[in-house]
Amino acid sequence: MTSFLFPTLADVKAACGRIAPYIRHTPLVPAIALKQPISGCPNLWLKLDCLQVTGSFKARGAVNTLKSLSEAELQRGIITASGGNHGLAVAYAGGLAQVPATIYLGRNVPAAKAERLRQWGAQVVFEGNDWDDANRAAMAIAHAQGLTYIHPFNDPRVIAGQGTLALEILTDLPQVDTLLVAIGGGGLISGISLAAKAIKPGIRIVGIEPVGAPTLKTSVEAGQIVELEATPTLANTLAPRRTEALNLEIIRRCVDSFVLVSDEAMAEACRWLWFELGVAAELSGGAAIAALMTGQYQPRPGEVVCALICGTGTAGLDG
Are 71 and 33 within 8 A, CB to CB? Predict the structure, then answer.
């Protein structure tokens, strides 16, 4: 791995300035629950990037990448593969740049997300059963047709864009001790962890994965990229079968620990978010809360915890 590919805090700060006109500085709120407080975590804050444009943090990385492309790269048209949220973000960014976007999806992507993509003017192509299948097809078409491919997590510009979340959190809550972050392919936690550790080296970063898709935990423990044979989870945005070398190296250096949560626990966390706080989250958005509710992550006394609510849902109940 070369230092040229490894994003830095300076890259994240540059991304913050680049994307500021097009994304929201989302709310960071205390998790005040009236009926069912989360036991053992009185100092819990929620970073509501489910209120981000397009409904997830993905707009940060997509816009940073689009605004970093040359005019020639833009005019060729853009293409990507997505579990849904990255595709929506690329479609949004493509609309800003007024260039056509083609989004490849696996068949495990909810139909509602595919329809939203079409409504936003993207060309939608279904290929294979999951993101990994769709991604191989998208990369092949990008090569054959000369389109500009935007990877959802294996791109320094995407990672830097996602890292702007850490800048917002540490500006609004400088006393935070621990960040709980859901993991799919690793782009989000790569950006957040490298930026947060650069600003506050003692901060703790905990990655949350589905029981059925322990993609990064498996690869970190093995010391190399491991491609899972299958990722049986309803949280399709957290279900790539493999990560990439750039993400694995950042996560190996910057993430302190991993916990696994079940689909049922994520669904219960989404119900809690909706009932207690009126926050509508998809399964991935409930992952950090699920880690606390199940005791998979147990804060120390007095620990200030920030859980990232990364993606929106329908009344907090869908995936």
Answer: no
pLDDT in tens, the chain (319 residues): 334 478 999 999 999 999 999 999 999 999 998 889 998 999 999 999 999 999 999 999 999 999 999 999 999 999 999 988 999 999 999 999 999 899 999 998 888 889 989 988 899 999 999 999 999 999 999 999 999 999 999 999 999 999 999 999 999 999 999 999 999 999 999 999 999 999 999 999 999 999 999 999 999 999 999 999 999 999 989 999 999 999 999 999 999 999 999 999 999 999 999 999 999 999 999 999 999 999 999 999 999 999 999 999 854 344 3
Contacts of residue 227, Cβ cutoff 8 Å, sequence gap at least 6: 132, 241, 242
Residue with tokens 């550790």, as numbered in its chain: 197
User: For the residues of 173-208, what is the DSSP string, one character each?
Assistant: -TT--EEEEE-SSSHHHHHHHHHHHHH-TT-EEEEE
Q: What is the dihedral of CA 151, 50, 191, 132, to 10 degrees?
A: -30
How many other C-beta atoms are found inside a 10 Å radius of the C-beta of residue 43? 17
Label the pairing between strands 28-30 and 44-48: antiparallel
Rounded distance, CA 96 to CA 80, Å? 16
Residue in 310, 288, 292 with CA at minimum distance from that of residue 36: 292
Count of alpha carbons within 13 angstroms of residue 284, beta-carbon side: 26
Structure-block tokens of residue 38: 């989360």
Which residue in 52, 41, 61 sits closest to 192, CA to CA?
61
Q: Dihedral, CA atoms, 238, 205, 27, 109, nearest 10 degrees?
A: 0
Helices (H) and strands (E) in the chain — how many of each? 12, 10
